[in-house]
Amino acid sequence: MYPLSSPPTGTGPFMLAEFYAGEGATTSRVILISTILSIITIPAWLVLLL
User: Fold this and answer.
1) What is the pTM for the complete model shown?
2) Please, are residues 42 and 6 in contact by the beta-carbon 8 Å criterion?
3) Radius of gyration for the alpha carbons in the chain, expressed in angstroms and rounded
4) Could you read off the pLDDT of 4-50 as tens digits, one per residue?
5) For residues 3 and 49, what is the distance between their CA atoms, to the nearest angstrom?
């Protein structure tokens, strides 16, 4: 069972938001927050699953 909630959001959504004149600032915040949270969640899942 692979936890899909642990990997951070990629930069693809940010590039699409900028290309289509969307909310680039909001998208970049989500990328930053998910990257920071992944520092905690990925090792935690590895400890639980291995």
Assistant:
1) 0.62
2) yes
3) 13
4) 555 666 777 777 888 888 787 888 888 888 888 888 888 888 898 88
5) 10
Q: Which amino acid is at 18?
A: E
Work out the angle between the directed axes of helices 24-49 and 12-19 (0-180°, nearest 10). Answer: 170
Q: Looking up tokens 């699953």, which residue turns up?
A: 49
* Other C-beta atoms lying within 10 Å of the C-beta of residue 14: 20
Q: CB neighbours of 45 closer than 8 A, spacing ≥ 6?
A: 3, 6
Residues 6+ apart with CB under 8 A from 18: 24
Structure tokens at 18: 């900028």
